[in-house]
Amino acid sequence: MTTSSTAQQAAPKRRWRNFLLDTSFQLKLTAYIVGVTLVLSALLGVFLVRSARALMQETATAVEARSKAAEVSRELSSATLSNELLARMDDPAFEAAFREKAQTIDAAYEQERAAIVAQRAELEWRQRATWWVLGAFLLAFIAVVALGTIVVTHRVAGPLLRIRRMVGEVAEGKLRPPSYGLRDGDELKDLFDATRTMMQRLREQSEEDARVLAKALEVAERGGASGESLGELRALESRFRARLDA
C-alpha cells in the first residue's frame, strides 16, 4: 500500500449562517465584551448628557435674557412715548406721530416675541433630537461591537472546532487528515497545521505497519503457519485497513 497524500484544496467560503460555530463560547465572550462596552458607553453617555444639558441650559438662559430684554425695551419705549405725550399734550400733530410710533414699537415687540418663541421651539427640538441621536448611536455601537465580536470569535471557534474534530477522529481510529486548510484570516493556524501533520504521520505509520503486517502474513502462509495464527494475522490486517479506509 502506498502512502496517501493529502491534497491541498481551497477552504470553503464563510457564510453568515455559519458564523456561530461554537454558540456557547462565542455568545459568552460576546456578552462579556458587550457588558464592558455598556459600562464604558454609560460613562461616556453620562458625560455627554451632562455636557449637552449644560449647553442647553446656557442656550435657554440666553433665550430668556433675550425675552426679558424685549420686554424691557418695550417698556422703555412706551415710557419714552408717554413722556413725550405729556410734554406735547397741546400739539395736535403729535397724536398721529404718537400712534405711528406706538404701532411700530408694538410691531417690533411682536416680531421679537415670535422670534423668541421660534427659538425656544427649535431649542426643545434640538434637545429631543440630541437624546434620540445619542440613544440610537449607543444602540448601533453595541450592535456593531456584538457583531464584530462574533466575527472575530468565529475566526477562533472555527479552527478550534476542526482541531477538536480531528482529535476525535484520531481517538476513534480514523486517520484521514482534512483535505483543506483554514480560511484566510483564521487564527490558530500553527496549532491546526501541527494537528494535521500529526494525523498525517499517524496515518503513514499505520500504512507502514499494514505493509509490514501484509508481508508477515505472506511469509506465514508460505511457511505453513497454523490456521489460528493466520486467522489472527488476517483479522489484525483487516482492522488496519479498515482504520485507513475509514
From TrEMBL:
Keyword line: Membrane, Transmembrane, Transmembrane helix
Bilayer-crossing regions: 29-49, 129-152
Domain spans labelled HAMP: 154-207
GO CC, alphabetical: membrane
SUPFAM superfamilies: HAMP domain-like (SSF158472)
GO biological process: signal transduction
Top-rank taxon: Bacteria
Coiled-coil portions: none
PROSITE patterns in alphabetical order: HAMP
KW DNA-binding (keyword) present: no
Cross-referenced InterPro entries: HAMP_dom (IPR003660)
Protein's name in the database: HAMP domain-containing protein
Species assigned in the record: Myxococcus fulvus
